[in-house]
Write a structure and sequence with these properties.
Chain lengths: ~270, ~375
C-alpha cells in the first residue's frame, strides 16, 4: 500500500465523488433535456416521449432566417475574436513591459467592461452608437462585443506573460534582436497558446452574447436574438434544436481554448528549477 | 590606455533614483583575460555587468569597447552577449534554434546558421541533443546550450551573470573547468560576476572585489588572498586574522602595533606608505600561517594566549576557532597531522603565534 492509499478515507472519497456527479447533473440537466426534446417528434415537451426524429432539425435547416442569423453570428464572432485578441495582447504587453503613473487605474479600467451589467452596457451602446449613426448594423454588434471581449483576451494573455522568465526579453535584445524582432520572435511565440486561447474564448463569448446584441443589432440579428424572436412567437421544439447546435459550437470553442491554454503550458512548469 | 585593453570604464556612476548602485568606477578589462567581479548582493557587480551589456546606461562616465565609447549603444547593436543567471533559454525553440537565434537576428543564411550552430553544439558536446526541447535537458546541458547560444557570434567579450548558481556542488566544479578551458582555448575575454569566492578564485586571472558600489581591490587571486588591500576585503575573504591597533613604531620595512591583546609586529615588508606613529592601522595574518603550540615558543614575537571555542573539519584540513582574553576571534587552519598531540577540546588554553614576516599591513584600515 502506498502512502496515498493509507491516508485516505473511503467515506470522504465517495462523498466527494457523489458531490461532483450531483454538481454536473445540476449544471447539465437542462441542456441534456433540451437535447433530448430536440430529438423528440412530439410538438410539446412531455413525458412519455414520442418517437426519435430529426424533424425539428430539418425545420430549422429549412428556415432562411436561421441561416441568416447564423451567418451574422459567425461573421461577427470571427471579427470580434480577432480584434479583441489583438487589442487584448497590446494591453497585456503594455502592462507586462511598462511601469507608469496610474497603471493600477489603467488596469482597472481595462478590465471593467465585463463587470458592467449587460443591460446598462447595451443601453449605453445603443445610445452612443445611434448618436454617431452606427446603430442597427453588423459593425454595431462588432464594436459592442469587442468592448466586452477584449478584457477577456487581455486577462488570458496577461496570465501567460506573467509566467515568462523576465530575462527572456532582454536576453533576446542582448543577442541582437531589436524590440520589434523580439516581439515577433520571442513574445508572440511564447504567448501563442494564450493568443489562440483568447481568440477562441472571445469568439465563444461573442457567439453566445444576447443582451447587447439585442439592443444594437437592428435588422442584423445574431442567432441568440433570433431565438428570442422564435420564443416570443410560439414555443416550438425548433428552439431545442438550435440550442443544441449553439451549445455544441460554443463548447467546441471553449474546449479548444482550454486544450491550448493547458496543454502548452505544461512543459513550462518543469522548466523551472 | 594600454595596448591590450579591451574595455575601459572611466568614471562610471550609476544611479537608480536616489540610490547609487555604482559610485565613480575606473578600471580596465584586458584582452583575453578571465575577470571575475565579486561581492555580496547589492554591491553593484550585476549593474556593472548590465552596463557592459548595454542593458543599463551609465548615469555619468564613459565605457569604451576597443577604444570606442559605447555608453548609449543599445544592447542589440553591441557584440556583448551575456549568459544569464536563469539562462533565459527560449522554451519554444529547440536546442539548435536557440543557438541559431543570434545569427538569425544578424541575417545569416539558413544553411550557414545551421553549420555554425552545430559547430558550437559539437564543441560544447551537446550536438546529439540539437533537436531536443529545452525542457528535456539536464541543468548542465542547459548551461552548455546557454554558452553556445552566446558564443555562436564569436564575440570579443562574454559576460556571465552567476551562471552556475543553480547547479549542485559537483556539477558546479565540473562546469568551472569547462568554462576555464573554453576561455583559454577561445581567447575570448570573460567577465564573470559571482558572489562565490571559490568560483572567482579558481577560474579568474584577475578578480575585482566590490562593496557598496565601490571597487575595494583589483588583483590576481594570489595578490588579493595574500595581501588584502582593505579591511573589508580581509573580512570578506575570511581567510585572515585581523588586528587593529595604534601604531607604536613604523618604518618602510615594518610596523609595530599596540592592540588590546598586546603588541603585533610586521617585519621584512616593503611599505610604500608606512603609517604614521600614533595612527590606527590594521595588520592581518593568514589563518594557514598562524600556528598553535601548548607552551609559548621561546623568543617569538606575535604570541597570543588563546582559548579553544570550536573546531570544524573539512576533508584533509581542520579549522580551529579560538578566542583571545580580550574576546578577539582567531582562526587557525591546518592539516590534521599538524594538530596531532594538541589539546583541542573546547576551553583548552593554547598559544597562537606567527612570524613577523607573515604579517601584512592593510592599506585602508
Amino acid at each position: 500500500m502506498n502512502s496515498e492509499q493509507i491516508n485516505r478515507s473511503r467515506t470522504v472519497d465517495w462523498t466527494l465523488r457523489a458531490y461532483i456527479v450531483l454538481a454536473y447533473v445540476f449544471v447539465f440537466a437542462p441542456i441534456a433535456a433540451s437535447f433530448v426534446f430536440s430529438l423528440n417528434s412530439d410538438r410539446f415537451p412531455s413525458i412519455p416521449l414520442g418517437s426519435v426524429s430529426l424533424d425539428w432539425y430539418r425545420a430549422v435547416a429549412a428556415d432562411p432566417l436561421v441561416w441568416q442569423g447564423l451567418g451574422n453570428t459567425l461573421m461577427i464572432g470571427l471579427i470580434v475574436g480577432v480584434v479583441s485578441t489583438f487589442l487584448g495582447f497590446g494591453a497585456a504587453y503594455t502592462d507586462y513591459r511598462y511601469h507608469f503613473f496610474g497603471k493600477q487605474a489603467y488596469l482597472a479600467l481595462a478590465l471593467l467592461p465585463p463587470t458592467i451589467p449587460v443591460i446598462i452596457m447595451g443601453l449605453a451602446m445603443l445610445a452612443f452608437l445611434s448618436r454617431v449613426d452606427l446603430s442597427g448594423r453588423a459593425i454595431s454588434v462588432i464594436i459592442s462585443h469587442v468592448v466586452i471581449c477584449a478584457p477577456f483576451a487581455m486577462a488570458i494573455i496577461r496570465l501567460r506573460l506573467s509566467q515568462m522568465d523576465p530575462a527572456l526579453e532582454p536576453a533576446a535584445w542582448n543577442l541582437g534582436a531589436s524590440e520589434w524582432a523580439t516581439m515577433w520572435h520571442v513574445i508572440v511565440p511564447f504567448t501563442k497558446p494564450a493568443i489562440f486561447g483568447a481568440l477562441f474564448i472571445t469568439m465563444a463569448v461573442s457567439f453566445d452574447e444576447f443582451a447587447i446584441a439585442w439592443f444594437v443589432s437592428g435588422l442584423n440579428e445574431t442567432l441568440p436574438v433570433k431565438v428570442l424572436g422564435f420564443l416570443q412567437g410560439q414555443v416550438s421544439p425548433r428552439i431545442n434544436a438550435i440550442g443544441t447546435f449553439v451549445f455544441v459550437i460554443s463548447m467546441t470553442l471553449v474546449i479548444v481554448a482550454q486544450v491550448l491554454l493547458s496543454g502548452r503550458a505544461a512543459p513550462k512548469s518543469d522548466e523551472k528549477e | 590606455m594600454q595596448r591590450d585593453t579591451l574595455v575601459s570604464i572611466e568614471g562610471v556612476i550609476k544611479r537608480f533614483g536616489s540610490f547609487t548602485a555604482v559610485r565613480k568606477m575606473d578600471f580596465e578589462i584586458r584582452k583575453g583575460e578571465f575577470l571575475a567581479i565579486m561581492g555580496s548582493s547589492g554591491c553593484g557587480k550585476t549593474t556593472t555587468l548590465r552596463m557592459l551589456a548595454g542593458l543599463e546606461a551609465p548615469t555619468e562616465g564613459v565605457i569604451r569597447l576597443s577604444g570606442k565609447p559605447i555608453n548609449h549603444l543599445p544592447t542589440w547593436q553591441r557584440d556583448t552577449p551575456m549568459v544569464w543567471q536563469s539562462l533565459a533559454l527560449f522554451p519554444f525553440l529547440n536546442v539548435r534554434e536557440n543557438v541559431e537565434f543570434a545569427l538569425k537576428m544578424r541575417g545569416v543564411g539558413k544553411a550557414e546558421r545551421r553549420r555554425r550552430a552545430e559547430q558550437w553544439l559539437d564543441r560544447m558536446q551537446i550536438l546529439e541533443f540539437s533537436e531536443r526541447n529545452i525542457a528535456q535537458l539536464s541543468g548542465g546541458q542547459r548551461q552548455r546550450v546557454a554558452l553556445a547560444r552566446s558564443l555562436v557570434v564569436e564575440p570579443e567579450i562574454l559576460l556571465l551573470d552567476e551562471p552556475l548558481s543553480a547547479l549542485d556542488a559537483a556539477l558546479k566544479v565540473r562546469m568551472q573547468s569547462v568554462l576555464k578551458n573554453l576561455q583559454r582555448e577561445t581567447g575570448i575575454t570573460f567577465v564573470y560576476v559571482t558572489h562565490s569566492q571559490s568560483e572567482a578564485f579558481s577560474m579568474a586571472d584577475r578578480v575585482v572585489i566590490m562593496s557598496r558600489g565601490v571597487i575595494e581591490q583589483i588583483g590576481t587571486p594570489q595578490e588579493i588572498y595574500g595581501a588584502p588591500r582593505t579591511r573589508f576585503v580581509a573580512d570578506f575573504l575570511g581567510s585572515s586574522n585581523i588586528f587593529t591597533g595604534k601604531v607604536l613604531a613604523a618604518s618602510d620595512s615594518g610596523v609595530q602595533l599596540e592592540t588590546a591583546d598586546g603588541p603585533i609586529v610586521l617585519k621584512g615588508a616593503r611599505l610604500a606608505q608606512p603609517p604614521r606613529q600614533g595612527a590606527t592601522a590594521t595588520l592581518t595574518v593568514l589563518d594557514t600561517k598562524t600556528h598553535l603550540s601548548m607552551t609559548p615558543p621561546p623568543d617569538a614575537t606575535n604570541v597570543l594566549p588563546v582559548r579553544v571555542i570550536g573546531e570544524e573539519f573539512v576533508g584533509a584540513t581542520a579549522t580551529i576557532y579560538l578566542e583571545t582574553p580580550r574576546g578577539q576571534e582567531i582562526r587557525v587552519q591546518k592539516g590534521h597531522e599538524d594538530l596531532v598531540g594538541l589539546p583541542l577540546d573546547i576551553g583548552e588554553t593554547l598559544y597562537a603565534h606567527w612570524a613577523p614576516t607573515d604579517s601584512h599591513l592593510v592599506a585602508e584600515a
